[in-house]
Amino acid sequence: MTEAARVLALLVERHQTLAAAESLTGGLVAAELTGVPGASASFKGSVTAYATPLKHQLLGVDAGLLAEHGAVDPEVALQMAAGVRDRLGADWGISTTGVAGPAAQDGQPVGTVYVAVAGPAGTGARSGKVVSLRLNGDRTEIRRESVRSVLELLHEELSENARAQDTEHYGGN
């Protein structure tokens, strides 16, 4: 079972939904998710905000943050994930932003990538979680690894969220 299939199965099991915001991956996350039969049961859609101004216009990323730090920034990744979750009305939002090459961007070297997840209200992931990656390889390899990494992060957060809910339900610590 692929990572995409695993996260979609967990979402269906919980009656939760997912939305994706992509930059450097240019729709590859959505393609990976929609390649799984039955994905429409939990995947609401995606926004490919490749141009920096679209991150503000479509996803609500703070314009001052973008002006000061550029699009390749951990806080931008978090705001993209939260923005797509809110805009598409999903329980969970994921995002990818970074530099796939061939040249550096916003003062960041090729292979600098941030992936993020923002979860439902009332969970630890509500404020979100971001992972900083330094990837090697060519443009295709960097983009492919970014997709794998964001889906893996989502799987970890879904698993952590389930453990937290079980602890609350059964009164453990």
Jot down its keywords.
alpha/beta, 173 residues, 18% strand, globular, Maf protein
User: Uncertain regions: pLDDT < 50 for 5+ in a row?
Assistant: none
CATH architecture name? Alpha-Beta Complex
Helical content class: 40-55%
Portion in beta strands: 15-25%
- Please tally the β strands and state the result: 5
Taken together, the total number of domains comes to 1
Euclidean distance between termini CA atoms: 32 Å
**CATH superfamily annotation:** CinA-like
What is the SS-derived class? alpha/beta
Spell out the blueprint of helices and strands.
Elements: H1 3-14, E1 18-22, H2 28-34, E2 43-48, H3 52-59, H4 63-69, H5 74-88, E3 92-98, E4 112-118, E5 129-134, H6 139-170
Parallel strand pairs: 1-2, 1-3
Antiparallel strand pairs: 3-4, 4-5
